[in-house]
Design goal:
It comes from Megasphaera cerevisiae DSM 20462. One of its GO terms (molecular function) is DNA binding. It is a single chain. The protein has 282 residues and is α/β, with parallel strands linked by helices. The chain is 36% helix and 23% strand. The chain has three domains: 53 residues, Winged helix-like DNA-binding domain superfamily/Winged helix DNA-binding domain (Arc Repressor Mutant, subunit A), CATH 1.10.10.10; 112 residues, Periplasmic binding protein-like II (D-Maltodextrin-Binding Protein, domain 2, 3-Layer(aba) Sandwich), CATH 3.40.190; 100 residues, Periplasmic binding protein-like II (D-Maltodextrin-Binding Protein, domain 2). A five-stranded mixed β-sheet has the order 4-3-5-12-6, with helices on both faces. Helix 3 crosses helix 9.
């Protein structure tokens, strides 16, 4: 849609007058949104998205051969990749589609859903983070739907000195490198790994992607802690998971979406595939 500069300026002034706010400010660096302008943009994006979803839901003006769209954000879970693969395999060959999966820090997953970059966000809560995260969900009109609960497990190389143990304690792990996902400036409540207060490793490795994490574990004595769920096609053949002994916390994996938003059919179909991927662990 094209619009002339004078018409755009008039439209902005009309909005500012109607809502009694200032949307844009001008300075020596150019034009930028005011805090109120950014908030207004956030609400406007949600309204536009909901309107589009309403049309899609009732097929208003949508041809049956139209391109389906699915947008996801999540922490670095193998079951998400497995579910997405199953979903893509189920799409008819002639169907046009656009699918995006953004993996990253917990705060990024939440922000993606709030700003409608993603329809669904996949993450976990624990006893230690539940109150903080659910308060954040409520504040931002998000709902959390539980999928599965996991007892934390340790991921190590199959040739690791501890690989034959039936379960592992934190004391047994203290002399080995601990590898985890880098969390930037996020607080510990956003951690992608379960918080274990007793872990005090003198050797720490931080990565930003799953491939690097599994490659390092496969080639060294490093370990990480997660759900314990494995897909050899994703993690490789050289990694095993061993339950953590006497864990003080549990991982409740679930998904978030904005309240009062009707998910499109493709998102619901993906959630069915996600439930299938998690079924063996429930």
């Amino acid at each position: 849609m094209e619009i002339s500069q004078p018409s755009l300026s008039t439209a902005i002034k009309d909005l500012e007058k109607e809502f009694h706010i200032t949307l844009l400010e001008r300075n020596r660096h150019g034009i930028s949104f005011t805090p109120a302008g950014l908030e207004f943009l956030h609400f406007a994006n949600r309204i536009i998205s909901q309107t589009g979803q309403l049309c899609d839901h009732f097929n208003l003006g949508v041809a049956p051969h139209c391109k389906l769209q699915l947008s996801l954000s999540g922490q670095h879970y193998m079951f998400t990749i497995d579910a997405l693969t199953r979903y893509i395999q189920s799409i008819p060959a002639e169907k046009k589609y656009s699918i995006s999966l953004r993996e990253g820090r917990t705060s990024q997953v939440i922000q993606d859903v709030i700003t409608l970059q993603s329809q669904i966000g996949i993450l976990f809560t624990s006893y230690m983070t539940k109150q903080f995260l659910h308060t954040l969900f409520t504040k931002n009109d998000l709902e959390f739907i539980e999928l599965c609960r996991f007892t934390p497990s340790v991921y190590i190389n199959k040739n690791h000195p501890l690989a034959e143990c039936g379960e592992l304690s934190i004391a047994q792990l203290k002399t080995y490198p601990y590898i985890r996902f880098e969390q930037g400036q996020d607080s510990r409540q956003f951690s992608e790994e379960i918080m274990i207060p007793d872990i005090k490793s003198e050797q720490s490795i931080y990565v930003t992607d799953r491939s690097a994490l599994f490659s390092i574990i496969s080639a060294t004595d490093a370990y990480t802690i997660g759900t314990g769920q494995l897909h050899p096609s994703i993690s490789g053949q050289h990694i095993c998971s061993i339950p953590l002994k006497s864990p003080v916390d549990m991982m409740t994996v679930g998904w978030i979406k904005l309240k009062n938003i009707v998910l499109p059919r493709e998102a619901l179909l993906f959630m069915n595939k996600l439930s299938t991927s998690l079924a063996p662990y429930k």
